[in-house]
Structure formats: C-alpha cells, structure tokens
Amino acid sequence: MRDTKSRDQLLDELRSAYEKGASIRSLVASTGRSYGSIHAMLRESGTTMRSRGGPNHRTRS
Predict the structure, then answer these.
(1) What is the pLDDT of residues 42-52, one digit of tens each?
(2) Element housing 1 (H / E)
C-alpha cells in the first residue's frame, strides 16, 4: 500500500515520473495529494521544474 512507502521512496517515484514527462496534475490524480504538496516534494527532491504550459502550450499573440 502507498501508506507504507517511505517519503524518500515517494519522492523518488514522483521525480522519476515527472522527469519522464508526467504533469504535476497527473501526479496529483494518481497520489490523491494536493498540487502544492506535489510541487513542494518535487522541489525538495531536486527536480528541475519544466516551464508552464506543457507540450500543447501556445504563447498568446
């Protein structure tokens, strides 16, 4: 169960998924945690954050 995983394991899993292209929102959906907590855990684990918008983001003209 997820509850038995250590925080370090969770940080590693979140970082790995994010670096493989998962969005923070998809991690929120899969873990049940808040956007802010996922973002904070990614930062804590040393993850390089992507810029906003994802692959379909278009700048406004």
Answers:
(1) 999 999 998 87
(2) none
